[in-house]
């Protein structure tokens, strides 16, 4: 098989074996979507650098550093858990009333919850804030649907290559904000040393930045974002506040009948109709990808903050923030300039499998860094491994770009894109007894803590389990088709 034949078989940029000229992206609306998409990764990543220290400050571990992972994992999971209960409903609602109203609600939830998080002084206050954030935010599936509606088969891969810009920016700026602006009265005593407010709420400043950004994104969305849904039901009619106008003009009856028939044909399918084999395959792979990725991201800040004698690196929140931000910089550059080329060369399935395979050396780096740090301290070799791990983690993003394309192709029709994306999100949360994004962080960090406390397999049990999970994910990936499905 020639390289050209291979591309014809696997890439979504070609249809019926013939090349098409890519349709130009609608850059104005596309840029607005990327801008508002930044709100979620910014609010998610800002807490990672200081979360272990925040748990210590609250005193819930009673000074036991090995137990910090339990509570950090719970805090990371609570957002995804509450989101799992609502994301499908938000996605299906967007198929009815349109994408824009649902996005506005999600941005409102992020704004309020982040301000509340910064003002929380108890563990349960933090839990309530994160729960609110997850429950009100259904944007993750809705934005993907909007992206698909702004594109066609000729430029979809190009659009998904730009999508990581927002996530990468959030992954870059979020940790920097969280690390550099937490406990400002200690880091910048010349500016905040006399501020009783910042002494009482040492993490409010860091949380207020993404909260304010979400508020600005709400205003931009309300004013400038155009609805992409082809036939949304007005919100007032959906709520029963306003009745649907009656059409009395007989001359328009035939036209109206045709439009009604067309709308009926394009109406989003029921949940049962969405549970097709191809949606199940795409959703299951998305679920396992989410588990591998979230486990790595969840353990990373806890590992970096855990004292060296307990198996970590003992870094400060500011240093953790700078380390985590490197991923965003490298990932954004790689995705924009290389994803489309890699995807077009190898196809969706092979690109997905390569990304999953990169997780193997990622998890191996953890015990290697631990051993070297215990023998040599934070030596040059440790830092080489730290940044090598960051660079390798870019590979997982390849899998995300690929699986999003599979999910879009798996949708029975374009009218069901929101529900399909939402359904895949829910299955990603609930697959294998709810251990994906909802339970994954808590399970991974709890396993990290118990491995250290009990000395299981020399404290490395967590890494063996995560490696095994990666190999299972590779096996599940073999069920993806070589050639993308076509929508009806």
Automatic annotation (TrEMBL):
Annotated region (Disordered), positions in chain: 1-20, 246-269
Main location: membrane
Membrane topology of this protein: Multi-pass membrane protein
Compositional bias annotation for Basic and acidic residues: 259-269
All copies of domain Major facilitator superfamily (MFS) profile, residue ranges: 29-485
Keywords associated with the record: Membrane, Transmembrane, Transmembrane helix, Transport
GO molecular function list: transmembrane transporter activity
Locations listed in the record: Membrane
Transport is among the record's keywords: yes
Domain of life the protein comes from: Eukaryota
Record carries keyword Transmembrane: yes
Record-level GO cellular component terms: membrane
Protein name according to UniProt: Major facilitator superfamily (MFS) profile domain-containing protein
């Amino acid at each position: 098989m020639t390289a050209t034949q291979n591309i014809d078989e696997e890439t979504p940029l070609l249809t019926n074996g013939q090349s098409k000229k890519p349709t130009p992206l609608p850059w104005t609306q596309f840029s607005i979507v990327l801008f508002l998409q930044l709100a979620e990764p910014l609010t998610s990543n800002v807490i990672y650098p200081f979360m272990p220290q925040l748990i210590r400050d609250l005193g819930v571990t009673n000074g036991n550093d090995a137990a910090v992972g339990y509570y950090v994992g719970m805090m990371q999971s609570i957002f995804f858990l509450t989101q799992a209960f609502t994301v499908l409903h938000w996605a299906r609602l967007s198929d009815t009333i349109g994408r824009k109203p649902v996005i506005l609600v999600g941005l409102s939830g992020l704004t309020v919850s982040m301000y509340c998080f910064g003002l929380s002084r108890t563990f349960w206050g933090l839990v309530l804030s994160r729960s609110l954030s997850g429950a009100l935010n259904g944007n993750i599936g809705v934005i993907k649907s909007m992206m698909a509606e702004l594109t066609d088969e000729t430029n979809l891969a190009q659009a998904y290559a730009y999508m990581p810009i927002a996530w990468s920016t959030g992954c870059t700026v979020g940790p920097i904000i969280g690390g550099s602006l937490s406990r400002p009265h200690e880091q910048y005593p010349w500016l905040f040393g006399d501020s009783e407010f910042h002494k009482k709420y040492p993490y409010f400043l860091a949380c207020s930045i993404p909260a304010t950004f979400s508020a600005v994104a709400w205003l931009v969305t309300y004013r400038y974002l155009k609805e992409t849904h082809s036939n949304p039901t007005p919100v007032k009619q959906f709520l029963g506040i306003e009745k649907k106008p009656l059409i009395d003009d007989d001359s328009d009856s035939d036209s109206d009948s045709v439009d009604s028939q067309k709308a009926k044909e394009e109406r989003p399918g029921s949940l049962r109709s969405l549970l097709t084999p191809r949606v199940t395959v795409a959703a299951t792979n998305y679920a396992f990808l989410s588990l591998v990725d979230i486990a790595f991201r969840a353990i990373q800040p806890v590992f970096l903050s855990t004292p060296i004698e307990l198996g970590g690196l003992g870094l400060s929140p500011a240093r953790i923030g700078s380390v985590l931000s490197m991923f965003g910089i490298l990932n954004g550059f790689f995705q924009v300039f290389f994803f489309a080329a890699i995807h077009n060369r190898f196809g969706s399935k092979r690109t997905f499998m390569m990304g999953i395979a990169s997780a193997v050396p990622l998890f191996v780096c953890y015990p290697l860094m631990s051993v070297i740090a215990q023998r040599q301290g934070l030596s040059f070799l440790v830092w080489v491994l730290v940044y090598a791990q960051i660079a390798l983690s870019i590979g997982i993003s390849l899998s995300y770009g690929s699986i999003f394309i599979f999910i879009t192709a798996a949708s029975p029709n374009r009218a069901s894109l929101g529900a399909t994306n939402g359904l895949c999100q829910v299955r990603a949360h609930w697959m294998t007894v709810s251990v994906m994004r909802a339970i994954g962080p808590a399970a991974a960090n709890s396993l990290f803590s118990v491995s250290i406390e009990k000395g299981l397999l020399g404290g490395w049990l967590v890494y063996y389990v995560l490696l095994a999970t990666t190999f299972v994910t590779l096996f599940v990936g073999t069920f993806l088709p070589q050639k993308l499905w076509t929508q009806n």
